[in-house]
Amino acid sequence: MNIFRFAGDMTHLISILVLLLKIYATKSCSGVAFTPQLVCVIGYVLLNVWISLKTQELYAFVFLARYLDLFSDFISVYNTVMKLVFVGSSLAIVWCMRFHRAVKRSYDRELDTFRHYILVGLSFLLALLVHEKFSFQEILWAFSIYLEAVAILPQLVLLQRSGNVDNLTGQYVFFLGAYRAFYILNWIYRYFTEEHFSRWISCVSGLVQTALYADFFYYYFISWKDNAKLKLPA
Description:
This protein has 234 residues and is mainly α. Helices cover 75% and strands 0% of the residues. The longest helix is centred in the first third of the chain and has 28 residues, at 3-30.
């Protein structure tokens, strides 16, 4: 454990809390007795969830594959709690977007059409070919690392198609990107302070994942500097 990994874990946790807040706001707004005219004006703004279900399903795959050791290998209370939080929250988010009436109604399937199963298949194939040790657990770990590197793609494509990005969704993607950036600093720190640090798969995949956020970070910074609404080019 070091300050960079802790910061990464906290920004990852914040991204999940922001997403849950987004879903909660959608559920709360759906129960307010607006007039039909008012709903027509603000319903689209408040109730549309510019969150990709495909990305959330990919993250659920990532955490389920990575944390199969949850009940077999105990490292620390902190480690166990964070694993439970990431697995539980990812499954809860997928359930809400698939089965909760208000959230499901606001989810735009027409924009979220990325073929995410291709990413699953390619990541698993790559894990079979490139891994640190040929064992069931290590292959699943490599699979989760490769899949996490590209899991944000359906979300970024959805935001580009929608054009406008609401504040909570923008904050969610920003904190996800910041989490991975902190983890890169964590790997650099461990490389210089640990004698046998060899998680090169994590390092390479983390660089790829961070690069995918570069365009989003640019427009996020521009919108912050100009105090304007975040918009991505279509």
